[in-house]
Amino acid sequence: MAPREIGVSPMYRILKKAGAERVSSESAEELRRATEDYALALARRSVELAGHARRKTVKAEDVRLSARPA
To answer: Which residues lie below 8 Å from residue 54, measured CB to CB, with a gap of 6+?
Structure first.
């Protein structure tokens, strides 16, 4: 399995902030996986937008535009 970029502890905190009384380790792991998958897809779209603008630097605007619902 590939190493993960995001720790599992923040996932527990996010689930608790969302109102969970108790959080299973499986739910925290699944949220981490889903979050990383979404973040990677968002980053790829952001890089693509920067490329279309003929820039090598990804800017905040690229990320904001990538995060918009289609």
So the answer is: none
- Which residues have C-beta within 8 Å of that of residue 8, sequence separation ≥ 6? 25, 28, 29, 32
pLDDT for residue 10: 97
| Fold classified for 24-67 | Histone, subunit A (1.10.20)
Query: pTM of the entire structure?
Result: 0.86
**pLDDT single digits (tens) 9-27:** 999 999 999 999 999 999 9
Per domain, the residue ranges of the chain are: 24-67
| Alpha-carbon distances, residue 55 vs 11, 51, 59, 62 (angstroms) | 33, 5, 9, 11
